[in-house]
Specification:
With 494 residues, the chain is mainly β. It has a single domain, classed as 7 Propeller (Methylamine Dehydrogenase, Chain H), CATH 2.130.10. It is built from six helices and 32 strands. The strands form nine sheets. A four-stranded antiparallel sheet has the order 1-27-26-25. Strands 2-32-31-30 form a four-stranded antiparallel sheet. Strand 11 and strand 12 form a beta hairpin. The radius of gyration is 21 Å and the shape is globular.
Length: 494
Amino acid sequence: MGHSLSYPSILVVAAFTGFLSNADVLAQEAEESHNVRLLGHNDLQARSAYHPVIQRQIIDGTERWIAYVGHHGGQALNPLSGNIEKNGTSVVDVTDPEHPVYLQHIEASYGTSGAQMARVCSGAELPGGDPNRSYLLRANGGRSPEGGNVSHQVFDVTDPGTPTLLAVVSEGLVDTHKNWWECDTGIAYIVSGVPGWQVDRMTQIFDLSDPSNPKFIRNFGLPGQQPGSDGEIPVELHGCISVVEANRVYCGQGTNSHGILAILDRNKLITDTLVDPENPTAEELEAAVISQLRLPDFMGAHTSFPILGMRPEEFSSDQEFKVRDVVAIVNESLRNECTEEARQMMYFVDITDEMHPWPISTYNVPDSSGDFCLRGGRFGAHGSNESFTPIFYGRLIFVSWFNAGMRVVDIRDPFNPKEIGYYIPAITENTDERCITIADESRCKIAIQTNNLEVDDRGYIYLVDRANTGMHIVELTGDAREVADFSVGLANRN
């Protein structure tokens, strides 16, 4: 773990040193935006960032908002400790979105590098948690770069400036990725590479209602991914999102090819009695699968975000099926400058009849709107927000598009999604170059690579950059802001 400072001390140091001021200025040069306004920026110590999650915490009797940002593999200087540290988890106070304060870097451990995914729960929500404490679940390490004891860990982050390792949930893995943690039940769906399985990413389900005492429930994958299978092997998992009230888990399989949307029965996943929970049979795996939508071979399923109970105005006079359930499927672009893959986009699938999921619309950013294929780096979709905050839920979705930044999409009519805003950050001195090889010659360009994003219950949006540009905090303006329901968000804070 990185060098620790007390929470109040870090705030004082940042205020008097002006540590973030230069990055703030640079990040406002040559940005591109519509109906979105930049509030603040943090350089995240120039680490390649994967995914942010924002948590409301009460610290010393005061409401604070803390961003936990997972990073890809690599290493960088931690100015707080003065040491070069393997990329892990950045902890940033974003209570004042115009002046975010970097609190701590939790270095990757056990010889690994990178800690891409972070989820945070309050002990007041968890059935077995300490109501006065907060907990971070993170992936530690992965297959790229290789090495070390790849694992999942729980930290006590009650004081986010001095996190302490509380438990190791699972270890000795081949890979990790996008976890999901139900704060109201404690059930966690962690993406793991358990040796012996046919794919490097499948699901391990744990009861983390008491985060200090993880309880293994079972391993899960689509039939054909289990050890000993000799049939077709479905593409590996990317991540799952559960909806407890609906008794469903929605899983996206694949990245930029052979994608699958899997709809699972949550209760069967958790309560079915298995002969061997570590090595379920094909029949036991099949029992939890409600349906699968197989995407074309040239499309992936990075994110599968459920948007349930939608009431499109178009159907308001219809006698039947006024209410629709939809999943937003976001592919991930992997190649630079529009080479070697099909364009990866966002698709909306009607799952009202969940035995027969059906695509109903597509959202894409036209290359011609910004000559994005020529800008360098990846151009195409990556992921959507995954927060269910009622400010935006069923109204707006935010999607990362690499060198096209963040896109704001009006989804009130999911059959006709409409872009109503965007924000593309400016490059900074930290932004790393992206290269391709043409006719055996390397060509490199410096470009924004907005990687993943998230929203909080105040209505702010957080973008993190894969090319070391840091985290940008933005808010909606104009027509886009009118679509959101900020009265609901304010009510939830009381």
